[in-house]
Write a structure and sequence with these properties.
Number of helices: 16
Radius of gyration: 22 Å
Distance between the termini: 31 Å
Shape: globular
Number of strands: 0
Structural class: mainly alpha
Strand content: under 5%
Helix content: over 70%
Length: about 450
């Protein structure tokens, strides 16, 4: 019996941790790029932060779409890896790459056509709007590069090589810090680009990451150039089948990302200081909460494996019980991180106005409670997806975001003119709305019947 399973064949907590920690560190570094940019740009003042917040609300939507399709590719590749079929591996990789690039190009076209109108409508001043557009124009390179890099990341994760994407961020993050500092402030003879320098640094670091992943793919699989044929006869038909499989999974992520982008645009209607505080805290919410989310993702992967092996119900229940207990500990760690960030905000972000730091501190009560329902909901969502209940998961996310959080955010900001703390509290409110819908569905147990492999 493997040390990664107990006597009943259920994965141990150590097995989940072994799968989760590279995913966690990779995700932290991915979100950390935004945190780093915000930290470096904060020295330029609230207007620069507001401009970056506007630009990243649009760029984040495109990045979310790319990552959504990459998640579907990861599942396809994992299925192919389990079947030990090189044709299926090749098909999963290249279909995913084509879909990512198509989604990226379509998204950038829409940004080119409409971003200027959106940003000018929500920016406090024309200067902030112009700064945001300049940042977004350069960040488009990051989006294009990441369309390819995220697909390769999904391929390696699906093959169980989760450390390779993690190593790519070990290269990208330090490079981003160094290049951004140099270009923001014009050090060592380089031009002083200000806010745009942060975008250029991110573009250069993402390019380095893509080069590293490409080299590792060539060394490992030779780009599958020696593998003939496609899983379903032709690349076109294979891509169509891949897209059909990906859309329900991607829909959830796209809705979440779109909702976050719309929310950031609504936050922009707060005064500049409160919007700057929201721009600073939201990346921390994603970064610090990453361990809980990736723990849930690893749990979902193992649930899918147990269902594929047709494990008995009590084995699934015992495994989920252990996963939930560990998730509670993860929630405590996340809440502690939030406390440290809020209490050290005046030290982390020197030079900000008193209203901005006061607003950051006011978020603390919400942040103390947020990790617990959020992580539990994530475990439910990933478990239900593993059982093939992907549409129901999407309905919960779409309903809680578009029927609860966003309408109330718009009402509070545009009509009631409430302070940022009341608006931020809706992030917790959304998780509480999802909580009964997720848990009642999970306890019903229909997901235990098995998974649809999407063949």
């Amino acid at each position: 019996m493997s040390s990664l399973t107990d006597n009943a064949g259920s994965p141990t907590t150590s097995a989940v941790f072994k799968l989760a920690w590279p995913l966690t560190l990779k995700a932290i570094m991915l979100h950390g790029i935004v945190v780093i940019d915000a930290y470096l740009v904060s020295a330029l003042g609230e207007e620069a932060l507001a401009a970056m917040g506007l630009a990243t609300s649009i760029a984040g939507l495109l990045m979310g779409i790319i990552m959504a399709f990459s998640t579907a590719t990861q599942i396809r590749v994992a299925q192919a890896f389990g079947s030990d079929d090189p044709v299926a591996l090749k098909t999963g990789l290249y279909c995913g790459l084509l879909i990512n690039l198509a989604a990226c190009c379509l998204g950038l076209l829409l940004v080119w056509l409409g971003a200027s109108h959106v940003i000018h409508a929500f920016a406090h001043t024309p200067q902030i709007a112009e700064l945001a557009l300049s940042y977004l124009q350069v960040f488009a390179v990051v989006i294009l590069v990441e369309a390819m890099a995220q697909c390769l990341t999904g391929h390696f994760n699906g093959c169980g090589e989760t450390k390779i994407p993690f190593y790519s961020y070990l290269i990208a993050v330090p490079a981003n810090i160094i290049m951004s500092i140099v270009l923001i402030y014009g050090l060592y003879g380089f031009p002083e680009l200000g806010l745009v320098g942060a975008a250029v640094g991110s573009a250069m670091s993402s390019t380095l990451r893509l080069l590293y992943l490409s080299v590792r793919l060539y060394r490992r699989d030779k780009f599958f150039l020696n593998v003939e044929g496609w899983l379903r006869g032709t690349l076109a038909f294979s891509t169509k089948r891949h897209l059909i499989f990906a859309l329900p999974i991607a829909g959830t992520f796209i809705s979440s990302t779109l909702a976050s982008s719309v929310a950031m645009l609504l936050y922009a209607k707060l005064n500049v200081n409160q919007f700057a505080a929201m721009t600073l805290i939201m990346p921390w919410v994603m970064v610090a909460g990453t361990f809980g989310i990736t723990w849930a993702q690893a749990t979902g992967i193992f649930v899918a494996q147990l269902l594929g092996r047709k494990s008995e119900s009590h084995v699934l229940d015992e495994f989920l019980g252990r996963a939930w207990r560990a998730a509670f500990i993860a929630a405590i760690l996340v809440a502690t991180t939030y406390v440290l960030v809020c209490l050290s905000s005046t030290w982390l972000y020197e030079g900000l106005k008193v209203e901005t730091t006061t607003t950051l501190l006011s978020f603390l009560p919400v942040l103390l409670f947020l990790p617990f329902p959020k992580i539990s909901n994530a475990i439910c969502g990933n478990t239900l997806r593993a059982g093939g209940d992907t549409l129901y998961v999407m309905y919960i996310f779409v309903g809680s975001q578009w029927l609860f959080r966003l309408p109330l955010t718009a009402f509070m900001v545009l009509y009631l003119d409430l302070s940022a703390i009341w608006v931020f509290a809706l992030v917790l409110g959304e998780e509480l709305v999802k909580f009964p819908a997720f848990h009642l569905r999970l306890f019903k147990g229909e997901w235990k019947r098995g998974i649809d492999a999407g063949a």
